[in-house]
Amino acid sequence: MASRMRGDHDRGLHHGVMRGVRGLSYLGRCERHPRGEIVKSDLYRLRFAYPKSSRLAFLSHLELSSTIGRSIRRAGLPFAVSQGFARRMRIQFTSALPVGVSSKAEYFDLFLSDRLDAGVALERLSRTAPAALRPFEARYVEGSLPALEAWLDRSSWLLDLGPGLDGNVVDEAIAALCEQGSFTSMRGEKEKMVDVRAGYVAHGTAREDESLMLGLETLLGPNGALRPEAFIRAAFACIGHADALPRYLRCERTAQHHLDDGTLVDPFQLSSTQFVD
Q: What's the first-to-final CA gap in the chain, in angstroms?
C-alpha cells in the first residue's frame, strides 16, 4: 500500500531511565532499589509480544493486566513477585492503549525466578491466554534495560477515516493543527492540553477499498502519549470540518519501537545473547 509520509520531525527525547533487575552475571547478589527495597538479582526477564484484538480491544489497561496475569498463573510459569507487604507479580507492560483501540504489537516483560526455555514458556502461555491476546513471540532480554512503558517511545498507528474524504484534506488539517501547536483533550472529566510538536512525527494516507486510511507516527512526549483519535479530530476541528469524520474511528497500533539518536530499535533487538535459545 503506497503511502505519502509528511512532516518527519524525529528528534531526541529526554526521558528518565528506570533501572531494572540485573541478569545472570550478578547471580546470587542483592541490590537496593531506588525506593529502598532489597531486590534479588538472580531473575530472568522474558519479553512477550502479543496482539489486542476483537472484543478484547475494549478492555481497560487494568482489565488487560488482570487477564494476562491469570493466564500466566494458569500456565504455571515461575514468575517472580515484588518485595514488601503487597506482593505482586513482577511484570511490566507498554504504555496503555485507549479503550477500543486494537493492536498488532503489544509487549510485556515477565520476571521469572527460574529459567525456562522461551519457546516452552510461549507454548504454555499460548494455551491459557484468550485468542485475542495470544502471544506470538518470546525472548529473554537484559534485566538492566529501562521499563517498557518508558523505553518504547515510538508508535505506528492505522486509522480508518471512512469513505468520502480526500488525502489532501487530511494533509491540510494536520498542517493547520501543527501550526496551532496544541489542542485540548478530555481525559475522563479532566481537560488536558496536548503539545502537538512533542508527540506528532509523520503521517501518510492511502485508499483501501472505499476507505481512506491514515498512517500516523507518534512519539511519547514528556506529558504522555499522543492519542491518535483525539489528534485527528482536533486537526479537522482546526479547519472547521469536525463533522467530516465518522462518529466511530477504527484505530490500530501496528508497531512499537525505541528511538535511539534517530534510529528505530526493535523491542527484541536488544535480546540478551546469554539468554537466547
A: 35
What does the radius of gyration of the chain's CA atoms come to, in whole angstroms? 20
Q: CA nearest 10: which of 268, 237, 257, 251?
A: 257
Task: Report the interhelical angle of 61-75 vs 118-128 (nearest 10°).
Answer: 110
CB 253 within 8 A of CB 155: yes
Q: What is the C-alpha to C-alpha distance for residues 103 and 101, in angstroms, rounded to an integer?
A: 7
Stated pTM of the model: 0.80
AA identity, residue 180: Q
Q: Which of 245, 224, 234, 207 has the alpha carbon at shortest distance from 95? A: 224
Q: Are strands 250-260 and 102-112 parallel, antiparallel or unpaired?
A: parallel
pLDDT digits (tens, 9 = 90+) for 57-113: 999 999 999 999 999 999 999 999 988 777 899 999 999 999 999 999 999 999 999
**183-238, pLDDT tens digit by residue?**
998 776 788 889 999 999 999 999 998 899 999 999 997 778 899 999 999 999 99
- Distance separating alpha carbons of residues 252 and 18, to the nearest angstrom: 28
Dist CA 31 CA 74 (whole Å)? 31
Tell me the domains of the chain and their CATH numbers: 24-150 (3.30.70.580), 162-248 (no CATH)
> Residue 264, Cβ neighbours under 10 Å: how many?
15
SS3 36: coil
